[in-house]
Description:
Blueprint: H1 9-17, H2 21-33, H3 38-57, H4 67-75, H5 89-107, H6 122-135, H7 139-145, H8 149-155, H9 165-176, H10 181-200, H11 229-237, H12 244-258, H13 263-268, E1 274-275, E2 280-284, E3 290-294, H14 297-309, H15 333-346, H16 357-369, H17 374-381, H18 386-390, H19 397-403
Antiparallel strand pairs: 1-2, 2-3
Amino acid sequence: MLANHFKSSATVNRLASGSAAPFLEGFVQTLEVKGYADSTIQYHVCAVHHLCSWASAKALDFTRFDDASFESFLQHPPSCHCNLASRGKFMHRARFSVALFAPYLREIGVLAVIDRKAHENPLLGSFRRWMLNHRGVMESTLRIYDRFIPPLLEAVSGDASRITAGTLRAFFIERTKTFSAGYASNVANAIRVFLRHLVAEGISPPGLDNALPPIADWRDRSLPRFLQSSDIERVIAACNCSTKEGLRDRAIVLLLVRLGLRASDVLRLRLQDLDWNDASIRVCGKERREARLPLTQEVGDAVLSYLQSSRPPVQAQALFVRLTTPIQPFADSSAISGIASAAMGRAGVRPPRRGSHILRHSAAAEMLRHGVSLQEIGSVLRHRSIDTTLHYAKVDRTLLRLVVQPWPEVPTHGQ
C-alpha cells in the first residue's frame, strides 16, 4: 500500500520499519477511501511517522494517548530532534494529520472512544431527545442550548428540582451582565424551553418558565437590511461558471436570493427533494416543517448545471457536497453562509450585515419591489406569522416619506 504512494524504496522501507508501521497500511487505506490525492496521503503518512517517532522517543504508550498528548506533540517542534523533524508549514499542517489519525486509532480500538456524555446529568439526555422528537429542532439548535443548560444545572449541583425563580434570575443576571440584548434573549429562551421540559416531566412546578420576562430588543426599530438589485446581480455573476466550484456556488446563491432559503435549508436539501416534472423543490425548514416551492427556470438551470458538471459521483443524498477531499456533505450551515459571503466579497459588495441571511432579506425586498403581496412573501419565506413578514413593509422608503409625521414640538415654559 505504501509503495503505491512513495516512489523511493528507501522511504518505503524506513516507514515500514518505524514505530508507525503497525498503523500505516490501514491508515493509508482509510485516506484512499476518502479520496485524498497522492501528495496529501504522503504528507499525512510522514506526519504520522513523525508522531510515532516522537512518542517512541518519549516512551509514551499510544493506548494512553488523549487530547493533551496530541497537543504536546503539536507544540514540540521548536526543539525537536526526532526523526523527520521539520519546521514551519509541516507542523502547522500536522494538526490536520492528527485530526485524521486520532479517529482512525479509535476506530481500530487502539484509543478508547471518548464519550463525554457518559458522566453528564441524565436529564440533559432526556431534554435532547424531547427537543428532537417532540419539538422537531435540529442538532445545531441543540448545540446552542448546550451552552446554557449544563451551567444552569451545575449552579444547583445537578438537582433540577432545586431550581427556583430566584435561582433563575441570579443565574441569568450573572451570565448576561456583560453581553448584548440579543445574547441575553438567547439565554432566556434556552432556559424557558428547558423549564417547560422540567414542567412536563413533573420536576418543576407549572409557571416557572415565566420567571424570566421577555427581553426588550425592539427588533423593528430599524429598516430591513438588504442588497440593491444591481448588487444582487453582481453577486450572482461573481460565481465563475467555468469552474466546478463556481457552478455549485451559483446554484447555492440563487437558492438563497431567489427563493429566500436559509443556509440551514440549503444544507438539508436532498437529491430526492427536486421534482423536475412539476418544477418544484421540497424544503424542510425550522422545526422540520416541509414546504414545496416553485423551481424557477433560472434556479432550475443552475441546479441542473451543477448536477451534470460539478457534483462528484458520491453516495451521499445531500444535494450540495464538498468538492475537495474528503468529498462529503457540508458539516453545518456555516459552510453555506461562507460560500455566500465569499461570493459577495468577489463581487466587491459590502453587505450591511455579514452572512447569507442578507440574501434572504434581499429576496423579500425584491419580491416587494415587484408588487408581490406581503401574504405571498410570507408564504415563500415560510413565516409562521404575518407579523414577521410585516417587517418588510418598511422597504419602500419613498412611501414611508409620504406617511411620516413630523415630530411634535413640545412648548417650553413661558410660551
